[in-house]
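Aim 2 progress update. The chain analyzed this quarter is reproduced below.
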Amino acid sequence: MRTLHADLVVDCAQALGEGPMWDPETEVLHWVGIEDQALHRLLPDGSWHTDHVPDRPGCVVLDEAGRRVVAFPSGIYVEGDGWSPISSICADRDDARLNDGKVAPDGRLVVGEMLEGSDERDGRLWAVSADGTSRLLRDDVTISNGLAWSADGVHFFYIDTPSRRIRRYDWVSEGRLGDPTEIVRVPNEAGFPDGMAVDDEGCLWVALWNGRGLHRYTPEGVLDTRIEVPTSNVTSCAFGGPDATTLFITTANESLPDEPQAHPGGLFAVDPGVSGPSPTRFGS
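Predicted structure tokens:
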């Protein structure tokens, strides 16, 4: 197994940095600071820009017009003259918020809903179309994370973080989920699996909360690479850069164990020796 080391890009010290997403058209990296109510951008000149928003963003994607679409606790909103609602999928629960989300090959935003402070499997996983219609995919999850699709769009990879498992589903007609197949069970000593990205070889890069790094798993679930990060709570990752050969990594500076930390909550990056696909735009 090879080992790589990530380098600091932005010392942004986010309480809960999450959801990196690269836009190849503008060469801008977007990510969220959930507890800081922030949307971040890493610009082509290397500068870092932050926009503060009215509530905690769980994830950010772009629509076909290049506008930011954000999952706030109460639903999905698009940026314009203020923030306009698209869907209020989470409005029926006062103690819930939306978390990790990505755009599926069919252009819908797949996003997880979690109940804060709950260890019960009473969260939900949604697929939301640009016209605001929604489909409930699952209603028995805890903390949705790590959403990814195979290159052919046939398989959907999914993490419910407390389970420590990565599961593969058939992404069948109209975006329904087939039966799950467990492909990885992350050992306790490695941390909790959090955000995830797929590379152009079909392998999965998994961020490890309380794990000080990331794991790369082959489609068969074999661990072949570890990336070391100098802080404990690694939250997510995404491929980007002009050639899509940089793996950007977000971290958190909350709930840290009592051990040395370097730049917790910062944005890191590494050249993993492989490229990754561009994200699909919402509504495409």
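The radius of gyration is 17 Å. The mean pLDDT is 95. These observations will guide the mutagenesis experiments scheduled for the next reporting period.
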